[in-house]
Amino acid sequence: MAPVYDIPKTQKAVVHENCGPDFKVKVVSDFPVPEVGADEILVRVTSSGVCHSDLSFLDGTWGKKSEVQVAGHEGSGYIVKHGANVNPDKYPLGMRVGVPLVYAPCRDCLACDTVDGEAFCVNSARYGLHKNGSWQQYVPVHSSYVVPVPDGPDEQVVGPVLCGGVTVYKAIKVSGARAGQWVVITGAGGGLGSMAVQFAVAAGCQVIALDTGADKEALTKKLGAKVFIDFAKQDATAEILRVTGGGAHVGIMVAPSGKAYAASLMYMRVRGTIVCVGLPPIVDPAPMHVVMIANKGLRIFGTLVGSKADFTESLDFVKRGIVTPSVTVRPMEEIGDILEEMQKGTLTGRVVIDLK
Q1: How many CB atoms lie within 10 A of CB 306?
Q2: 3-state secondary structure of 328
Q3: Which is nearest to 50 in space by CA: 356, 354, 353?
Q4: Cβ pair 80, 44 in contact under 8 A
């Protein structure tokens, strides 16, 4: 017999106000539980990752600000209600699902007609930007974009895979990195970077973790990085050139820093590949010199999360224990402190807030 869920009228949620440099967040217990549309399912979110994109939508560093009250797009939970048009046999009550960034690709635009282009759909809303996101206990998910979660992974590691994890997984896929090649990962000790290290190691690559701090060195080496370079203490370019014998094959640019992007041109080898993942603030442009790009024959790719197929593939790595997101679970009441630590760059791994 299918479970029956008692859905309340109100819920706990992290709400924000004054988006911009002076934004504020607080936890409320009387936020309305949303009604489920005919083509939607209602998900009881039990935990959610805290992504740097959430912070950027709150403080406006990308020039865009959240249009809603609740941020978050790395939710993990289970189905508690169906809309009138949803097939309950396909998506049964109690089924584990995720809440990713993209709400519902239109499947009819130029982006959606491109292979794996659904993440770029301009007609789909984004959670935390256009629709109230996963920092609340109940979230409607469109039935056309349900992300099933396989049995096995702990629910608290699922959320971070749905944005940070799939983003770096996709970056390594599009880079064409092969076993034995040198891959530099900037910001390797953070939430995205630590997952990028694991996916690159799983691909057989030799990983150079670029970050600063003893805690991040310990984490990245534990996850399989062959070399850790502390950019605050070492000449990163010289060390990368020395270790690799001429430059890295691939650079996965996770750190949201224009300076980091500019420096990458110096340590890439001829015909190397740079993948743009971290997005610097609009006041921190990346001065990537075209002459050097041409002289080295570099390839530069941009990527943005991934497709539903990428979600399935990246979650399978977690299910099989090949990748284990490094997460710290904290109460949702600590969200203000978490965001402040994120702004300072002191977080190690990914933080997940408990929404139970």
Answers
A1: 28
A2: strand
A3: 353
A4: yes
Check residue 39 and report its DSSP letter: T
First to last CA, the chain: 24
What would the pLDDT profile of 14-57 be if each residue is shown by its tens digit? 999 989 889 999 999 999 999 999 999 999 999 999 998 999 99
Q: Is the dihedral of CA 307, 328, 157, 206 positive or negative?
A: positive
Average confidence (pLDDT) over 59-88: 93
Inter-residue contact 15 to 28 (CB < 8 Å): yes
Within its chain, how far is the Cα of 272 from the centroid? 24
Q: Where are the beta strands (DSSP E) in 187-340?
A: 206-211, 227-230, 248-253, 268-276, 299-302, 327-331
255: left (phi over 0), alpha (psi -120 to 50) or beta: beta
| 164-180 per-position pLDDT tens digit | 899 999 999 999 999 99
Q: Which amino acid is at 160?
A: P
pTM of the predicted model as reported, rounded to 2 decimal places: 0.90
